[in-house]
Amino acid sequence: AQKITQTQPGMFVQEKEAVTLDCTYDTSDPSYGLFWYKQPSSGEMIFLIYQGSYDQQNATEGRYSLNFQKARKSANLVISASQLGDSAMYFCAMRPTHTGGFKTIFGAGTRLFVKA
Amino acid sequence: GAVVSQHPSWVICKSGTSVKIECRSLDFQATTMFWYRQFPKQSLMLMATSNEGSKATYEQGVEKDKFLINHASLTLSTLTVTSAHPEDSSFYICSARDPGQGDEKLFFGSGTQLSVL
Question: Is the Cβ of B5 closer than 8 Å to some Cβ of chain A?
Protein backbone atom coordinates (compact mmCIF):
# COMPACT_ATOMS: atom_id res chain seq x y z
CA ALA A 1 0.00 0.00 0.00
CA GLN A 2 1.09 3.55 -0.69
CA LYS A 3 1.16 5.96 2.21
CA ILE A 4 2.47 9.41 3.05
CA THR A 5 2.92 10.45 6.68
CA GLN A 6 3.37 13.98 7.94
CA THR A 7 3.57 13.93 11.71
CA GLN A 8 3.66 17.67 12.36
CA PRO A 9 0.16 19.20 12.29
CA GLY A 10 1.62 22.64 12.91
CA MET A 11 5.00 24.31 13.01
CA PHE A 12 6.19 27.74 14.08
CA VAL A 13 9.32 29.42 12.77
CA GLN A 14 10.83 32.81 13.27
CA GLU A 15 11.14 34.97 10.21
CA LYS A 16 14.51 34.58 8.44
CA GLU A 17 15.22 31.24 10.13
CA ALA A 18 15.19 27.82 8.47
CA VAL A 19 12.55 25.20 9.12
CA THR A 20 12.25 21.50 8.31
CA LEU A 21 8.92 19.87 7.55
CA ASP A 22 8.94 16.11 7.97
CA CYS A 23 7.61 13.55 5.54
CA THR A 24 7.93 9.78 5.43
CA TYR A 25 6.48 7.52 2.82
CA ASP A 26 5.79 3.88 2.14
CA THR A 27 5.60 2.17 -1.21
CA SER A 28 6.50 -1.13 -2.75
CA ASP A 29 7.09 0.47 -6.12
CA PRO A 30 10.82 0.64 -6.94
CA SER A 31 10.37 3.88 -8.83
CA TYR A 32 8.46 6.90 -7.62
CA GLY A 33 8.38 10.66 -7.46
CA LEU A 34 8.14 12.78 -4.35
CA PHE A 35 6.65 16.26 -4.29
CA TRP A 36 5.97 19.14 -1.98
CA TYR A 37 3.08 21.52 -2.52
CA LYS A 38 2.13 24.70 -0.73
CA GLN A 39 -1.50 25.62 -0.16
CA PRO A 40 -2.14 29.17 1.00
CA SER A 41 -5.47 30.16 2.50
CA SER A 42 -6.78 30.90 -1.00
CA GLY A 43 -6.84 27.15 -1.63
CA GLU A 44 -4.65 26.88 -4.70
CA MET A 45 -1.98 24.20 -4.75
CA ILE A 46 1.47 25.51 -5.61
CA PHE A 47 4.19 23.10 -6.69
CA LEU A 48 7.44 23.63 -4.79
CA ILE A 49 9.89 20.84 -5.46
CA TYR A 50 10.28 17.36 -6.94
CA GLN A 51 12.59 14.44 -6.18
CA GLY A 52 12.82 11.30 -8.24
CA SER A 53 13.57 8.09 -6.41
CA TYR A 54 16.62 7.44 -8.56
CA ASP A 55 17.99 10.96 -8.37
CA GLN A 56 21.43 10.90 -6.79
CA GLN A 57 21.35 14.43 -5.49
CA ASN A 58 18.84 16.16 -3.28
CA ALA A 59 16.57 18.53 -5.14
CA THR A 60 16.79 22.26 -4.59
CA GLU A 61 14.60 25.10 -5.82
CA GLY A 62 15.59 28.50 -4.54
CA ARG A 63 14.91 28.57 -0.80
CA TYR A 64 13.45 25.07 -0.88
CA SER A 65 15.48 21.91 -0.62
CA LEU A 66 14.40 18.32 -0.20
CA ASN A 67 16.37 16.16 2.21
CA PHE A 68 15.91 12.77 0.57
CA GLN A 69 16.95 9.75 2.59
CA LYS A 70 15.88 6.75 0.57
CA ALA A 71 16.83 4.08 3.08
CA ARG A 72 14.75 5.81 5.73
CA LYS A 73 11.98 6.56 3.24
CA SER A 74 11.94 10.18 4.23
CA ALA A 75 11.64 13.31 2.11
CA ASN A 76 11.80 16.30 4.40
CA LEU A 77 11.33 19.82 3.07
CA VAL A 78 13.75 22.48 4.24
CA ILE A 79 12.78 26.11 3.84
CA SER A 80 15.64 28.49 4.37
CA ALA A 81 15.33 32.16 5.36
CA SER A 82 11.60 31.91 6.13
CA GLN A 83 9.38 34.75 5.02
CA LEU A 84 5.97 35.82 6.31
CA GLY A 85 4.50 34.75 2.98
CA ASP A 86 5.60 31.19 3.66
CA SER A 87 2.79 30.80 6.18
CA ALA A 88 0.54 28.16 4.62
CA MET A 89 -0.29 24.47 4.56
CA TYR A 90 2.40 22.23 3.12
CA PHE A 91 1.66 18.84 1.64
CA CYS A 92 4.07 16.06 0.87
CA ALA A 93 2.99 13.84 -1.99
CA MET A 94 4.12 10.73 -3.83
CA ARG A 95 3.45 9.23 -7.22
CA PRO A 96 4.53 5.63 -7.76
CA THR A 97 5.76 5.21 -11.30
CA HIS A 98 4.73 1.66 -12.09
CA THR A 99 1.58 1.16 -10.05
CA GLY A 100 -1.48 3.31 -9.69
CA GLY A 101 -1.61 4.90 -13.12
CA PHE A 102 -0.08 8.31 -12.40
CA LYS A 103 -2.09 8.73 -9.21
CA THR A 104 -0.56 11.11 -6.70
CA ILE A 105 -1.35 10.66 -3.02
CA PHE A 106 -0.95 13.31 -0.36
CA GLY A 107 -0.02 13.42 3.28
CA ALA A 108 -2.17 15.07 5.94
CA GLY A 109 -0.25 18.31 5.69
CA THR A 110 1.66 20.61 8.01
CA ARG A 111 0.53 24.13 8.75
CA LEU A 112 3.48 26.49 8.94
CA PHE A 113 3.27 29.74 10.85
CA VAL A 114 6.05 32.27 10.29
CA LYS A 115 6.44 34.78 13.12
CA ALA A 116 7.67 38.32 12.59
CA GLY B 1 4.39 26.55 -16.42
CA ALA B 2 1.23 24.79 -17.47
CA VAL B 3 -2.07 26.38 -16.47
CA VAL B 4 -5.20 24.61 -15.29
CA SER B 5 -8.36 26.64 -15.07
CA GLN B 6 -11.24 25.55 -12.84
CA HIS B 7 -14.70 27.05 -12.70
CA PRO B 8 -16.63 28.05 -10.77
CA SER B 9 -14.52 29.11 -7.80
CA TRP B 10 -17.44 28.75 -5.47
CA VAL B 11 -21.05 27.66 -5.76
CA ILE B 12 -24.00 27.56 -3.41
CA CYS B 13 -26.87 25.30 -4.33
CA LYS B 14 -30.03 23.85 -2.86
CA SER B 15 -30.18 20.27 -1.72
CA GLY B 16 -31.28 17.97 -4.52
CA THR B 17 -29.85 20.01 -7.38
CA SER B 18 -26.87 19.11 -9.55
CA VAL B 19 -23.70 21.12 -9.88
CA LYS B 20 -21.15 20.97 -12.68
CA ILE B 21 -17.50 21.91 -12.18
CA GLU B 22 -15.21 22.42 -15.16
CA CYS B 23 -11.49 21.84 -15.34
CA ARG B 24 -9.53 23.01 -18.38
CA SER B 25 -5.89 22.70 -19.34
CA LEU B 26 -5.16 25.97 -21.10
CA ASP B 27 -1.78 25.47 -22.74
CA PHE B 28 -1.31 21.74 -22.89
CA GLN B 29 -3.25 18.61 -23.67
CA ALA B 30 -4.14 16.46 -20.71
CA THR B 31 -5.12 12.89 -21.47
CA THR B 32 -5.51 12.33 -17.77
CA MET B 33 -6.94 14.61 -15.13
CA PHE B 34 -7.52 13.97 -11.45
CA TRP B 35 -10.31 15.10 -9.17
CA TYR B 36 -9.63 15.59 -5.48
CA ARG B 37 -11.83 16.46 -2.57
CA GLN B 38 -10.63 18.33 0.48
CA PHE B 39 -12.51 18.78 3.74
CA PRO B 40 -11.59 21.74 5.96
CA LYS B 41 -8.12 21.41 7.46
CA GLN B 42 -7.65 17.99 5.91
CA SER B 43 -5.64 16.54 3.09
CA LEU B 44 -6.58 16.02 -0.51
CA MET B 45 -8.37 12.77 -1.16
CA LEU B 46 -8.30 11.42 -4.68
CA MET B 47 -11.81 10.80 -5.95
CA ALA B 48 -11.24 9.66 -9.49
CA THR B 49 -8.98 9.65 -12.48
CA SER B 50 -10.51 11.19 -15.57
CA ASN B 51 -9.40 9.64 -18.84
CA GLU B 52 -9.97 11.37 -22.16
CA GLY B 53 -12.32 9.38 -24.33
CA SER B 54 -13.03 6.65 -21.81
CA LYS B 55 -14.70 6.07 -18.48
CA ALA B 56 -13.29 7.56 -15.32
CA THR B 57 -11.62 5.37 -12.75
CA TYR B 58 -13.07 5.92 -9.30
CA GLU B 59 -11.36 5.37 -6.00
CA GLN B 60 -12.82 2.95 -3.53
CA GLY B 61 -15.77 4.41 -1.68
CA VAL B 62 -16.54 7.11 -4.25
CA GLU B 63 -20.00 6.81 -5.77
CA LYS B 64 -19.70 6.98 -9.54
CA ASP B 65 -23.40 7.73 -9.95
CA LYS B 66 -23.09 10.58 -7.51
CA PHE B 67 -19.98 12.15 -8.97
CA LEU B 68 -20.21 12.01 -12.74
CA ILE B 69 -17.01 12.67 -14.60
CA ASN B 70 -16.77 13.42 -18.29
CA HIS B 71 -13.52 13.95 -20.17
CA ALA B 72 -14.73 14.61 -23.68
CA SER B 73 -11.68 16.42 -24.99
CA LEU B 74 -7.97 16.66 -24.33
CA THR B 75 -8.41 19.95 -22.52
CA LEU B 76 -11.65 19.61 -20.58
CA SER B 77 -12.88 17.42 -17.77
CA THR B 78 -16.10 18.01 -15.88
CA LEU B 79 -17.29 16.80 -12.50
CA THR B 80 -21.03 16.83 -11.87
CA VAL B 81 -22.26 16.39 -8.34
CA THR B 82 -25.73 14.96 -8.82
CA SER B 83 -28.58 15.43 -6.36
CA ALA B 84 -26.28 17.30 -4.03
CA HIS B 85 -26.77 17.07 -0.28
CA PRO B 86 -25.20 19.06 2.56
CA GLU B 87 -22.65 16.29 3.17
CA ASP B 88 -21.33 16.92 -0.35
CA SER B 89 -20.24 20.39 0.72
CA SER B 90 -16.50 20.46 0.28
CA PHE B 91 -13.58 21.91 -1.64
CA TYR B 92 -13.12 20.16 -4.97
CA ILE B 93 -9.91 20.60 -6.89
CA CYS B 94 -8.80 19.21 -10.20
CA SER B 95 -5.33 18.58 -11.48
CA ALA B 96 -3.58 17.49 -14.62
CA ARG B 97 -0.19 16.31 -15.67
CA ASP B 98 1.55 17.89 -18.62
CA PRO B 99 3.11 15.02 -20.61
CA GLY B 100 5.56 17.51 -22.10
CA GLN B 101 7.22 18.08 -18.76
CA GLY B 102 9.45 15.38 -17.47
CA ASP B 103 9.15 15.69 -13.74
CA GLU B 104 5.66 14.32 -13.37
CA LYS B 105 4.31 17.10 -11.21
CA LEU B 106 0.62 17.91 -11.19
CA PHE B 107 -0.77 21.30 -12.10
CA PHE B 108 -3.81 22.24 -10.09
CA GLY B 109 -6.86 24.31 -10.73
CA SER B 110 -7.78 26.93 -8.18
CA GLY B 111 -10.48 24.74 -6.67
CA THR B 112 -14.24 24.99 -6.21
CA GLN B 113 -15.85 25.51 -2.85
CA LEU B 114 -19.26 23.82 -2.93
CA SER B 115 -21.84 24.64 -0.29
CA VAL B 116 -25.10 22.70 -0.35
CA LEU B 117 -27.93 24.22 1.66
Answer: no
